[in-house]
Amino acid sequence: MSAELTPARERIVLWLLALTQFTVIMDFMVMMPLAPQLMQAFHIEPAAVSGAVSAYAWCAGLSGLAAAMYIDRFDRRKLLLTVFALFTLSNLACAAAPNFHVLVLSRAFAGLTGGILGAIVMAIIGDLIPAHRRGAATGVVMTSFAMASVAGVPTGVMLAAHYGWASPFYILVVCSLPILLLAARILPALDSHLPNRVPLSAMVPNLIALYKEPMHLKAFLLSVVNMMTGMMVIPFISPVLVSNVGLQPAQITYVYLAGGLATFFTARLIGKWADRYGAQKVYRIVSLLFILPVLFITHIPAMPLVGVMLFFPFFMVLASGRNIPMQALMTTVPDPGRRGAFLSANAAIQQVGTGLGALLGGLTLHTEVSGHISGYGLNGWIAAGMAVLTVLWVGQVRGAAFKAAPVGEAKPA
Fold first, then answer.
1. Helix axes 252-277, 305-321, angle to 10 degrees
2. What is the mean pLDDT of residues 256-279?
3. What is the pLDDT of residue 202?
4. pTM of the entire structure?
């Protein structure tokens, strides 16, 4: 980095990164509540919608894997601006897709670009923010999930209900352009890591070494199972609420609005808890609590809209809250010189988990003649089991400071 940021500019940069993440998360999340409209417009089954989600995830995973070889070779500011511009083009391609096959290809393009933006954002946080404040900083950036839930997804669903499924993607393009211009103006140069970059001939060996590091492998396993846990359930919430619970597609707006409002106020709080009590401890608590709303939503009975709106904030707060301490923990795992490569590789692993979760979750679901979607309860029990596995495994994931502490010196928790 060319110069140390003042506290005021640091806050501005963090909120700018949150806005960048907002567009990425909205792009991914909006596909899920759009499922009923897509099923009707293209005459497809829920498994086909999960296939579109998986196409994004698989391509994002491949992109993250490739990015691990080059992300630390560029100024992170320039790389963020370039990838974000391509991501904006991918949303324009989604909006203009004339049929479902082209939409799936456009989602793959979105995965190739949007899939590594999260890794770049987290690498920037790792470069700018000291380790003892990264939980709070991650909490600020993770409010993007809340912003997407409160402002993005509900608006997208409402527009889709009135103007067609493509309208949310046009909105994303309109939102992305000013964010791109603001990022070009506000972000400082982020090139302090460049003097330590490895030669081109060492890129592939270094990538292999990255995946051979035992602590990295433990972190990657946590990431993939964490993502699979949520994706066994989340992509199918909207079609189940419409087909099984009896809500109208437009009413999904209010459900996500209620959940998003709650996460907006809890994301930063969970981040501060992670800094104060330790990322591992907070992750365990939130993950165990997450099991309860998972089992309820996958066995949800018919109920009025008000009942769903009262429950859904608990699900959203805990679903997003699990990722805050986990992401803060991931920034501490690698040595600083390999942070960008590690986080890109981790982003690839997370997308693999996303794709596997959505794919496996779709395989268990079947639409009955009556329109009722069956098999969702099984998804809930599988997700609950995975959540327990992550709680047991998170203690195995340690940071570089822990590994580097001299013998006889207390190691950080």
1. 30
2. 86
3. 62
4. 0.70
